[in-house]
Amino acid sequence: MEEWISKIKAEYEQATQKFGKFNSTHEGYGVIKEEFDELWDEIKANSSKEVMEKEAIQLAAMSLRFLVDCCETQPPAAPDSEGRCPCNLCGGYHKGDTCPYYEDD
After folding, report:
1. pLDDT tens digits, one per residue of 45-58
2. How far is residue 94 CA from its own chain's centroid?
3. Which helix (H) or strand (E) holds 3?
4. Which helix (H) or strand (E) holds 86?
């Protein structure tokens, strides 16, 4: 298991260095869905274990990135000059506790 964790951590660090943090939970979801779809495509194609391993590592790394970037408890960001706070859902700034662009299904 340590080998898998090491590979996931390396992929996480490479992606974070290259792309930075997720700007929102929606962005994180989109990246995770893309990685999941890529793994599913390889599974359906009966690809080699090496190819599926690569995709699974990327999926796990992006899930870890989501946890770190979107779920870790961080001190609240300071409001901007107009009193708006950064939104964890869309990455924009809004007054109040709700995002006008996010609909809870």
Report:
1. 999 999 999 999 99
2. 22
3. helix 2-19
4. strand 85-86
> Please, which residues have CB within 8 angstroms of residue 22's CB and are 6 or more apart in sequence?
28, 31, 65, 66, 69, 70
The dihedral sign for the CA sequence 40, 42, 45, 47: negative
Average pLDDT over residues 22-46: 94
Whose tokens are 């298991």? That residue is: 1
Distance CA 21, CA 19 (A): 7
The SS3 of residue 48 is coil
Sign of CA dihedral 15, 16, 19, 24: positive
37 Cβ neighbours under 8 A, 6+ residues apart: none
11 token code pair: 């992929």
Tell me: the pLDDT tens digits for 69-90?
Answer: 988 765 556 667 777 767 666 6
For helices 25-44 and 49-66, angle between their N-to-C axes, nearest 10 degrees: 170
